[in-house]
């Protein structure tokens, strides 16, 4: 007695033996096999919850496969772009892990050619680089950033490319130094310029040549106010060129104007300010200054070496940058007695016995407010409370027609000390009531008389 695969009743033994029995058995077997195959091919009906779970599992599998394929593509892209890369690109910064697995990614892609990407386990998560995000209330503030040369416009001059990198890394930092370097770079741009056929220098130079240079420098680091004033002046000089003047003569005239601007508004201005400020220093004075500034150092050396004044200096330094150490060393090397303090701890105690405070200006606003290195406002307020005069040294090219009453309207974010939790501002704004005198090449005035200096400039121009 034998049983069918589907468990039906046994075949009766009374059937005739021989071939008819075999054919009947094989027929029953074929029928049962077809029945079984039909049952297996027809899936059992799933409930709604089971269908939802199945769809969810399939979706997760597709995501894992797509993520694995993306990792392989990133590795191949990193390998292919590595030979010609000149600077860190956005993909290098964002996908640092793919860069570290160049070899592994390329071997996977070679072995998996023509086959779907397979993953034995969940794809490894790519660690996202901590990205600094500026809060919404400070979104109008800019920050210096080092741009790869490959991202620069094709019309940017090589000298301007190098200058932009120096500004972005704060190798060139002071406003007057940045201004002078910018004008000298523009002079080289003008020297190498050739007017295209069918154009004039006055109409083609500014939009097609100067503007790409300005845009690149601004992208590397926000322009200081003196740079803005000088660029507006330069564009005005270009617009005044007669179209009938030969190109060579026009370029020579522009370069000569730039040299004159540097000589009068920068070099001579610094010399006059240094002499006027040195006259304010008397024998026995105790001068306190903040950080390091070229014009402050020249003033103190002028008063000591040329005028022959006997005085001492207190240098209070920025706790983040420590540039005041340079000033303290240079003054000490010339024989001046210097006391150095690395931060603002005990500031009021350091101000005891101080007779004058000397600070330099990044800019002066039209309402008499001082725009200077972060920490200057704290120093000026403490000095005012102790009735110590605060003298500001500022070239007129640094004076702007804009008005500011706080440190948030115009400022820069320190790129080296910024994180998701906090960030530092490079400058602060000191109201005019905490300042005593503003010394410029056009004269010594009260902070409230800064508009008079602007009026004199307009009359002289």
Task: Tell me what the structure shows.
The protein is an alpha/beta fold and 461 residues long. Among the domains are: 143-269, Four Helix Bundle (Hemerythrin (Met), subunit A), CATH 1.20.120; 278-460, 3-Layer(aba) Sandwich (Rossmann fold), CATH 3.40.50.10470. The protein is built from 15 helices and 13 strands. Strands 4-3-2-5-8-12-13 form a seven-stranded mixed beta sheet, sandwiched between helices. A three-stranded mixed beta sheet has the order 1-9-10, with no helix packed on it. Strands 6-7-11 form a three-stranded antiparallel beta sheet, with helices on one face. The longest helix has 34 residues, at 48-81. The chain is globular and about 100 Å long. Residues 1-29, 31-42, 77-121 and 126-130 have low confidence and may be disordered.
Element layout with pairings:
Layout: H1 19-41, H2 48-81, H3 90-94, H4 96-100, H5 102-111, E1 142-143, H6 158-168, H7 175-191, H8 201-220, H9 225-239, H10 247-279, E2 286-290, H11 294-306, E3 312-316, H12 324-333, E4 337-341, H13 347-350, E5 356-360, E6 363-364, E7 370-373, H14 376-385, E8 390-393, E9 412-418, E10 423-425, E11 427-430, E12 437-440, E13 443-445, H15 450-460
Helix pairs in contact: 2-5, 6-7, 6-8, 7-9, 7-10, 10-11
- Briefly note the structural class of the backbone: alpha/beta
CATH topology of one domain: Rossmann fold
Mean pLDDT figure: 81
Q: How many H/I helical runs?
A: 15
| Adjacency order of strands in the biggest sheet | 4-3-2-5-8-12-13
Alpha carbon gyration radius: 38 Å
Reading the helices and strands in chain order gives: HHHHHEHHHHHEHEHEHEEEHEEEEEEH
- State the end-to-end CA separation: 123 Å
**Which CATH C-level class of one domain is it?**
Alpha Beta
Helix content: 40-55%
Model regions low in confidence, pLDDT < 50 over at least 5 residues: 1-29, 31-42, 77-121, 126-130
Shape: globular
What is the name of the CATH superfamily of one domain?
Translation initiation factor eif-2b, domain 2
Main β-sheet description: 7 strands, mixed
């Amino acid at each position: 007695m034998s049983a069918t695969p589907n468990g039906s009743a046994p075949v009766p033994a009374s059937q005739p033996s021989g071939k008819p029995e075999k054919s009947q058995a094989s027929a029953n077997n074929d029928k049962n096999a077809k029945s079984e195959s039909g049952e297996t091919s027809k899936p059992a009906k799933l409930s709604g919850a089971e269908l939802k779970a199945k769809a969810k599992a399939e979706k997760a599998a597709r995501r894992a496969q797509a993520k694995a394929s993306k990792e392989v593509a990133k590795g191949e892209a990193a390998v292919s772009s590595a030979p010609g890369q000149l600077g860190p690109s956005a993909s290098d910064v964002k996908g640092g892990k793919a860069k570290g697995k160049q070899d592994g990614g390329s071997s996977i892609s070679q072995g998996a050619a023509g086959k779907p990407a397979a993953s034995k386990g969940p794809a490894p998560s790519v660690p996202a680089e901590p990205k600094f995000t500026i809060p919404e209330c400070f979104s109008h503030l800019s920050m210096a950033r080092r741009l790869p040369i490959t991202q620069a416009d094709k019309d940017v001059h090589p000298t301007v490319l190098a200058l932009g990198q120096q500004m972005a890394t704060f190798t060139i930092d002071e406003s007057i130094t940045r201004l002078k370097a910018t004008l000298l770079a523009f002079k080289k741009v003008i020297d190498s310029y050739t007017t295209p056929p069918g154009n004039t220098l006055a109409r083609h130079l500014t939009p097609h040549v100067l503007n790409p240079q300005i845009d690149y420098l601004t992208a590397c680091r926000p322009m200081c106010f003196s740079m803005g004033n000088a660029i507006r002046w330069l564009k005005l000089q270009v617009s005044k060129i007669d179209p009938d003047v030969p190109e060579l003569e026009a370029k020579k005239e522009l370069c000569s104007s730039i040299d004159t601007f540097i000589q009068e508004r920068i070099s001579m201005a610094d010399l006059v300010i240094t002499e006027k400020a040195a006259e304010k220093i008397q024998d026995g004075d105790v001068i306190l200054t903040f950080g390091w500034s070229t014009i402050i150092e020249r003033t103190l050396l002028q008063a000591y070496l040329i005028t022959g004044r006997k005085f001492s200096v207190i240098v209070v330094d920025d706790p983040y940058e420590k540039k005041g150490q340079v000033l303290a060393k240079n003054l000490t090397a010339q024989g001046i007695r210097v006391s150095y303090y690395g931060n603002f701890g005990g500031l009021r105690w350091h101000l005891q016995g101080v007779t004058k405070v000397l600070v330099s200006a990044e800019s002066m606003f039209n309402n008499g407010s001082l725009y200077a290195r972060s920490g200057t406002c704290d120093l000026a307020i403490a000095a005012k409370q102790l009735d110590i005069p605060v003298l500001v040294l500022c070239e007129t090219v640094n004076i702007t027609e804009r008005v500011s009453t706080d440190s948030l309207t115009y400022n820069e974010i320190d790129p080296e000390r910024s994180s998701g939790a906090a960030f530092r501002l490079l400058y602060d704004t000191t109201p005019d009531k905490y300042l005593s005198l503003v010394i410029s090449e056009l004269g010594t005035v009260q902070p409230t008389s800064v508009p008079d200096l602007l009026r004199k400039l307009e009359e002289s121009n």
